[in-house]
Design a protein that fits this description.
With 253 residues, this protein is an alpha+beta fold. The protein has a domain of 65 residues. Strands 5-8-9-10 form a four-stranded antiparallel β-sheet. It has a three-stranded antiparallel β-sheet with strand order 6-7-11, with no helix packed on it. Strand 6 and strand 7 form a beta hairpin. The longest helix is centred in the first third of the chain and has 25 residues. The chain is elongated. The N and C termini lie far apart (99 Å).
Length: 253
């Protein structure tokens, strides 16, 4: 999507970011649904209503490759002639170069009109341009996502979402959001789990006063260490069976 709106269709090669390879086996969930799950980019195209047109001919892929070859050759020369030495300077050269390139090599469309449409009212780009993953809420009303644990707060007239199937959105700025049936849920970082809390460290808090009569508090981690017990060697007594003479019994045939 650019300043003109959302494109009606996208013509692309069959790269893995657009569609999953057909040789990849289907999961049981996909077999039950009767369709293959799209990639993150494919899901983005579906939600924006963009028609995905893969290219199956070498000529179609060659047009794209020739365009990249032009950019990799001509654009490098333009950057050198402009003396661009930073990302900001390179971006300014690029925005000046693209309109000139399009005016020179653009071909009029076979059908008049715009191939873009405006987003609907209330369009939220953060809800679309993100990575989406499905998770099941635990019995403690906590969603696990990698190293993160999100505590779901009561919302929408519901106190608990235990065992609910939710959608976790990983946004471009690194933030996380949890959605259930299209509604964004209120979350907060969940407390540490019991095994993490039961660490063998205690905290000792000491206080004192500086020369300026200011109260200072320091926290020192003290590790509980217990010295291993030295095993005692026990010596068999004189009447122990090991002390008795060993008798050899030979079976006679």
């Amino acid at each position: 999507m650019d300043s003109r709106g959302i494109p009606m269709a996208l013509y692309h090669d069959r790269h893995g970011i657009f569609e999953r390879p057909k040789r990849e086996p289907e999961s049981l969930e996909e077999q039950l649904e009767g369709r293959r799950k799209p990639t993150q980019f494919g899901r983005l195209l579906e939600e924006l209503g963009i028609t995905s047109i893969p290219s199956y001919s070498p000529e179609a892929r060659g047009r794209i490759e020739r365009l990249w070859d032009t950019f990799q050759d001509r654009l490098v020369s333009e950057l050198r002639l402009a003396g661009a030495s930073s990302i900001n300077e390179a971006n300014r050269v690029l925005w000046d170069f693209l309109p000139q390139h399009n005016r020179r090599f653009a071909v009029p469309a076979a059908q008049p009109g715009s191939a873009y449409r405006k987003p609907e009212e209330g369009f939220n780009p953060d809800k679309i341009f993100c990575f989406k993953y499905y998770r099941t809420v635990g019995t403690d009303n906590v969603v696990r996502f990698g190293e993160h644990r999100l505590q779901i707060m009561p919302s929408n007239g519901r106190l608990s979402y235990a065992r609910a199937r939710v959608e976790v959105h990983e946004r471009m700025n690194g933030s996380l959001a949890v959605y259930y049936q299209g509604h964004c849920l209120a979350t907060k970082p969940a407390p540490l789990e019991a095994p993490v809390l039961r660490v063998k460290n205690t905290v000792r808090v000491t206080s004192g006063r500086t020369g300026h009569d200011e109260l200072t508090v320091s926290v020192v981690a003290v590790k509980k260490t217990s010295q291993p017990k030295t095993p005692r060697s026990t010596k068999p007594g004189p009447d122990h069976p090991w002390r008795r003479p060993f008798k050899l019994h030979i079976a006679r045939g």
